[in-house]
């Protein structure tokens, strides 16, 4: 017998909000269900596991190369997320077809009643899918990332391209300069405010190298009465530690589900040493899922400015 579970108005709102957020974060790698090549009405997101992203550190640009990517496909069932889990598929050129079910089964376990789960699934695929496969089928996947990185290194050496990536912050600083930086507030850059139905959204970005920097920036922002009295000041940051690990955190500040979407935006754009704070002044009219779209978009605007080395135009008067 078929599933006669109906989809409630609340479920539809949660689904629409989730899709709005995902399509905003993964603009270039999000494929709408209407464009599903298999005509099965699945949404698709192209995901690169973290181990493969690491090849960028040795100078190989994997953008546009599907060899490292997973095709994460999902379809909403009636009653998602209140009663039923979504339908899932995972494909990849390096992923054996018979092992796809291992990932799908684990992803299904991440769903829980009444909780939109696609973000959690994407996060797990990025952070843990290779490790999980290495434990489940070590003879196939144990060295896959190492082998690909070795291949990338050989390619890098053969092209004799050793130029480092551009970076806003200097890579060589004296210990004295680093100590001085800790005593000062990192420069704050403030984006253009977006208004919708009297609610205003504005993002602030700072280059940070420690949790102390993060707190210094937050304290500096709170010195401005208008920001301190805003309805929400949600934030997310990612800091690359000396050992190569990433220290990352988000805070919703009462806007449930906002901080993790901001953090996903930072991760999707491979941001390091970046803090983004989004201030929202509530205008008295509920926006539903559209509020997440605005939060993600103002975050992306500042991230894009950082990645394109065009932050100076957004230097905030808060620095004075």
From TrEMBL:
Residues 17-136 form the RWD domain. SMART domains: RWD (SM00591). Residues 155-184 are annotated as: Disordered. One of its GO terms (cellular component) is cytoplasm. Pfam families: Impact_N, RWD. Keywords: Cytoplasm, Repressor, Stress response, Translation regulation. Belongs to the IMPACT family. This is Impact protein. It comes from Cavenderia fasciculata.
């Amino acid at each position: 017998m078929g599933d006669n579970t109906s989809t409630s108005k609340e479920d539809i709102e949660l689904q629409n909000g989730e899709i709005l957020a995902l399509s905003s974060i993964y603009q270039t790698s999000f494929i709408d269900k209407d464009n599903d090549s298999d005509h099965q009405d699945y949404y698709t997101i192209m995901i690169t596991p973290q181990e493969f992203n690491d090849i960028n550190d040795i100078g190989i640009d994997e953008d546009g190369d599907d060899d490292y990517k997973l095709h994460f496909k999902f379809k909403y069932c009636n009653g998602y997320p209140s009663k039923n889990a979504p339908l899932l598929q995972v494909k990849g050129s390096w992923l054996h077809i018979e092992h796809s079910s291992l990932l799908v089964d684990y992803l299904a376990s991440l769903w829980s009643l009444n909780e939109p789960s696609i973000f959690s699934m994407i996060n797990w695929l990025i952070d843990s899918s290779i490790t999980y496969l290495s434990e489940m089928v070590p003879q196939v996947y144990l060295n896959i990332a190492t082998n690909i990185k070795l291949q990338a290194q050989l390619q890098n050496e053969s092209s004799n391209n050793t130029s480092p990536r551009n970076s806003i912050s200097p890579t060589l600083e004296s210990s004295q300069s680093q100590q001085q930086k800790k005593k000062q507030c990192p420069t704050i850059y403030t984006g253009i405010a977006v208004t919708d139905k009297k609610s205003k959204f504005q993002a602030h970005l700072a280059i940070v190298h420690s949790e102390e920097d993060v707190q210094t920036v937050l304290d500096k922002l709170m010195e401005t009465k208008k920001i301190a009295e805003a309805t929400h000041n949600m934030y997310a940051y990612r800091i690359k530690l000396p050992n190569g690990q990433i220290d990352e955190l988000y805070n919703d500040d009462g806007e449930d589900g906002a901080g993790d979407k901001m953090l996903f935006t930072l991760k999707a754009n491979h941001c390091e040493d970046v803090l983004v704070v989004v201030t929202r002044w509530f205008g008295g009219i509920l926006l539903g899922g559209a509020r997440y779209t605005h939060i993600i978009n103002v975050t992306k605007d500042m991230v894009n400015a950082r990645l394109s080395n065009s932050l100076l135009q957004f230097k905030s008067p808060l620095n004075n």
